[in-house]
Hints:
Blueprint: E1 4-9, H1 13-22, E2 29-32, E3 46-50, H2 51-59, E4 70-72, E5 74-79, E6 85-89, E7 99-103, H3 104-118, E8 121-123, E9 126-130, E10 138-144, E11 147-158, E12 170-186, E13 193-199, E14 202-209, E15 212-219, H4 221-229, H5 232-243, E16 250-253, E17 257-266, E18 270-271, E19 274-276, E20 282-283, H6 291-308, H7 317-345, H8 350-364, H9 367-379
Parallel strand pairs: 1-2, 1-11, 2-8, 5-13, 11-19
Antiparallel strand pairs: 3-7, 4-7, 5-6, 9-10, 10-11, 12-15, 12-16, 12-17, 13-14, 14-15, 17-20, 18-19
Helix pairs in contact: 1-3, 1-6, 6-7
Amino acid sequence: xxxxxxxxxxxxxxxxxxxxxxxxxxxxxxxxxxxxxxxxxxxxxxxxxxxxxxxxxxxxxxxxxxxxxxxxxxxxxxxxxxxxxxxxxxxxxxxxxxxxxxxxxxxxxxxxxxxxxxxxxxxxxxxxxxxxxxxxxxxxxxxxxxxxxxxxxxxxxxxxxxxxxxxxxxxxxxxxxxxxxxxxxxxxxxxxxxxxxxxxxxxxxxxxxxxxxxxxxxxxxxxxxxxxxxxxxxxxxxxxxxxxxxxxxxxxxxxxxxxxxxxxxxxxxxxxxxxxxxxxxxxxxxxxxxxxxxxxxxxxxxxxxxxxxxxxxxxxxxxxxxxxxxxxxxxxxxxxxxxxxxxxxxxxxxxxxxxxxxxxxxxxxxxxxxxxxxxxxxxxxxx
Length: 383
């Protein structure tokens, strides 16, 4: 008999969401987290939650605890040095908001707090050292402090991006880009509009965050390092040149960080007794803010499949195939969408610049096409 029906490796937001979705189901669920308690809560990156993700978080019972969040009522998409633009509107899409902006630190902290109360075996500072699989269970070896332990589970759910290779081969594409994140203030109010401006070096996103703006600026790694070391006035001048004056004069910037960007996709999300969700299944470019939302849907759909099958079927071939089938279209579409945007827009090739402008202009003039894009970004392939 296995120690757990489900053992989750990775206590970030996706792993925590999976654990919360499985609570009250009468299953033995454990969670291993390599970091110490509270470390993820210092991460300053912004997260854009789709309205569909809000619905999941409401079902998990943590949405109210995340407040206040900043709603995105409109999204303005344009390209630097070219014509064409698109404006997406929550009112046109018949939604209360297109999305919501929250700090990753607060999201992770809120989920971790709920997790501590919902999961009995929540072990932090636990590093997995081995994952041998047998016919009826996976055996997980991990180290916690000086202790080396071994437990068994009918199903191991990997929600830690560092464990991606445990499931299958991984396809990787280095974008040769990096993202700079910071909070900035502007001379004009954002009015709950999010901006996605494509530049030859990569997309520049400004998201409404309280009274300020959360910046995610994609550029070359060399430029990213330079931007993080410039004095405040120099940084704001560079940002003004890249974005324009739609928000007036940029006035101040907070602490800046940067991280490299690459696409990493597991060729299969499930193997014998093991399944990958979130960053363990796919790590995406931050363009259009799809990564976490896709991972959250992974967790919710996996929990749905687990709860629908019998205890003896958890981790079996039929259950894993059911999960693959439910996630195939949404996952493939999310990977294709973000990867295509990056490769199509991150250049200054004149014919492509013209084609992009025409595409944006046509999309902006076609309400059914805009509605299709919004529904897919909001709810995934099932939208």
